[in-house]
Amino acid sequence: MAPERTSLARLPQSESDAPALPAVRERDLLPAIEPDRQVTDWGRSERFEGLFDRTVVEFFYRYWFRAEVEGIENVPADGGALLVSNHAGALPPDAAVIARAIREEHPNPRSLHITVEHFFKGYPFFSMLIPKIGCVAAHPANVHRLLYDEEQLVLVFPEGAKGTEKLYSERYRLRRFGRGGFVAAAMRAQAKLVPVCVVGAEEAAPVFRQSATLKRLSGLLYFPITPTFPWLGPLGMLGYLPAKFRVRFLEPIDTVELGADPEHDRALVQTVAQEVRARIQETLHEMVAERKSIWFG
Amino acid sequence: MSPESGAKARRVLVTGLSTYWGGRLAQALESFPGIEAIVGVDAREPNRELARTEFVKVGIQHSLIQRIVKAAEIDTVIDTRLIVDSMVDTRGRTHENNVIGTLNILAACAGSDSPVRNLIFKSSAHWYGCEQDDPAFFTEEMARKHPPRTPVERDIVEAEAAVAEFAEKRPDVTVTLLRCANVLGPDVATSHIRMFSLPMVPMILGFDPRYQFVHEDDVVHALEHAAFTRLPGIYNVAGDGVLALSEVISLLGKRPLPVLPPWGTGLAVGPLRRLGFRVPDEMLNQLRYGRGLDNRRLKATGFQYQYTSREAVLRLGEHLRLSPVLAGIREPYRYEREVEEFLRWSPHVRRERPGSYGRDDAGLFDPSPPTDEARADAVEPAPPRSATTPELPDPGRLEAEEVIALLSCLDSEQLATLERRERFGRARETVLEAIEGARDLG
């Protein structure tokens, strides 16, 4: 759970007259949580999220994808942790399944903050809805505040849009992991890195083609052609096939053990990013090999 | 350590005295006996009643201001002039005030023989702008990624750059820059308040931006805090909590009206402006992307906000419901030079009248971090400080010998009051010692 916060934290008074700023832990100065709020400071609405969770997510998680979770004990019960996952599907269902898996299976059902592209903040309706269900823009400052100051769980997809726009023929092949910004963020925040593997999303929302023309016309991030989209309109984005989902949380990497100020060591950042990527890729291969059927697991 | 022993401001120049912030600040400073002199300059006459602030009608010519600064030995210049709402004045005059004016004020404080030791500049969070790829909470070190989009933002960026350059050139001057979030309150007038006072609040269809507010009193207190504490650097001034616009509207008890189209918003606003709906450009960006600020740096210096964003909105809501009932009850203040001069300089005016530092919320702000009881008291309007012992003179206005001579005819309670005033005021050691001696005798 989030630590108790108060805006009225008493500051230690320095004895001398020197006007030096008191060394306060920045966490103590976070805004107090007001009980009557409708949304959090990040724009998350418990009411809306709960409704979404009880209806759409519940249906897909339990009945449609029949998600199974392994290694939930690898998600820390407290403190900031950065979950790193593979990413796939036209309107990726993996984030919601991971969030639900933690809420459902974890002894301390913490809420998960999902990082998304800045694109969503600029697109009407997405801009309104996405923060309400717990998504935040993937800005390094946002990730740092969530991990370090607020000690929350954050989910990143280092592949980003490159992962979701890949075609069905390239399934379970991880794209590159950017410049390792997510590793640097976890190091700076001294948070644990938890690699996550999701199998099933690629088959649930297969993308056959990407249309550059329609992408430009619609102003969307990418314009996938799937079995249901764009044929059934925007709701076609939710037209998932009933693939069996498996989520596996891998053993966390503790960034505190990597020495002091590891985020300034570019080589180390890259090494850790590669290591995380390799572990996810390997485990994905393992999980796909174990799977007997796409639909029944 | 007495609360004001670290006080740095004694002789203050308030530029932009006739703006809302200048007037409020001067009124607030008057209630601190530790402040010896308050001089206000503006091209227009003040619109608020001031008891001891000296008003000098002067534009932004730096040579004249410089002469005032030197003659009055001003140690603290507080610049509250910046226009951060493009609906306040014409484009040209706004630029003149914001950029040329700032350069002139800075020039008036420059010079190696200048007595100025502190410069406090009120800026705005519009400096950060509102963009799609903004962080959810701006901290003071963050730089703007995009060039300013609107004229007012451009002005603010330019003015702040000038202030930063001044700070670099004059390391002996403590330069404090306060970036205020959108201000709400019963007294101040902003475009956002005008929008919130409409029966239905317009929104851009498909957007629910994050908004952070600060109550007008907290802005005044932040300026006071900057005057009493050494605060070099930039500080965000914003109440705790970031609200969604939909939440703001429901707290106000209004209904949202998502009439502005998400595409071509600027075009659609044109006809609305002609209908009298005043939406400045910088507000359109906020209605789309919103903005949140990290207010922890100012809090770390010991400043405490009295209102969260939510409470500021609730207060505004109360005011909006009450204002039609109260309309026209209070007559607006009019500045009359002759009257003001009579009150200040005529030998017939009894200066030591009780409540001469008349500000209702004088007790609300204490430059030291208040104790919990003080905070609890502060919720109710505290009585003016001088009301407790009306016959007691203000030690700040007497010479040390005069105060000491007076001590013998005071009782212990009055002595305690006097000691408190002296300690919070001029804190002369001889006087404090004498009071202590008198108390021991009593």
Q: Tell me the fraction of residues in β-strands of chain B, as a range.
A: 5-15%
Helical content of chain A, roughly? Answer: 25-40%
Please report the number of helical segments of chain A.
10
CATH superfamily of chain A, please? Answer: Glycerol-3-phosphate (1)-acyltransferase
> Kindly state the mean pLDDT of chain B as a whole number?
84
In N-to-C order, the SSE pattern of chain B is EHEEHEHEHEEHEEEHEEHEHHHHHHHHH
Can you tell me the CATH topology of the largest domain in chain B?
Answer: Rossmann fold
Q: Which structural class do you get from the secondary structure elements of chain B?
A: alpha/beta
Shape of chain A: globular
Cα distance spanning the termini of chain B: 25 Å
How would you characterize the largest beta sheet of chain A? 8 strands, mixed
CATH topology description of chain A: Glycerol-3-phosphate (1)-acyltransferase
Seen as an oligomer or otherwise, the chain set is heterodimer
The rounded Rg of chain B comes to 23 Å
DSSP summary, beta strand count of chain B: 13
Low-pLDDT windows of residues of chain B: 1-7, 353-390
Can you give me a brief rundown of this structure?
Chain A is of the alpha/beta class and 297 residues long.
Provide keyphrases for this structure.
heterodimer, A: 297 residues, alpha/beta, Glycerol-3-phosphate (1)-acyltransferase, two-stranded antiparallel ribbon, 33% helix, globular, disordered N terminus, B: 442 residues, Rossmann fold, 2 domains, seven-stranded parallel sheet, two-stranded parallel ribbon, 16 helices, 13 strands
What does this protein look like?
The complex is a heterodimer of chains A (297) and B (442). In chain A, strands 1, 2, 3, 4, 5, 6, 9 and 10 form an 8-stranded mixed sheet that branches. With 297 residues, chain A is α/β, with parallel strands linked by helices. Chain A is built from 10 helices and 10 strands. Chain B is built from 16 helices and 13 strands. Chain B is globular, with a radius of gyration of 23 Å. Mean pLDDT of chain B is 84; it is low at 1-7 and 353-390. The A-B interface holds A 7-8, 10-11, 13, 17, 19, 21-22, 24, 26, 29-32, 34, 36-39, 41-43, 45, 118-119, 121-128, 131-132, 136-137, 139-142, 145 and B 1, 5-6, 132-137, 139, 142, 204-208, 210, 229-231, 240-244, 246-247, 250, 262-263, 288-289, 292, 294-296, 299-302, 304-305, 308, 310, 369, 372, 375.
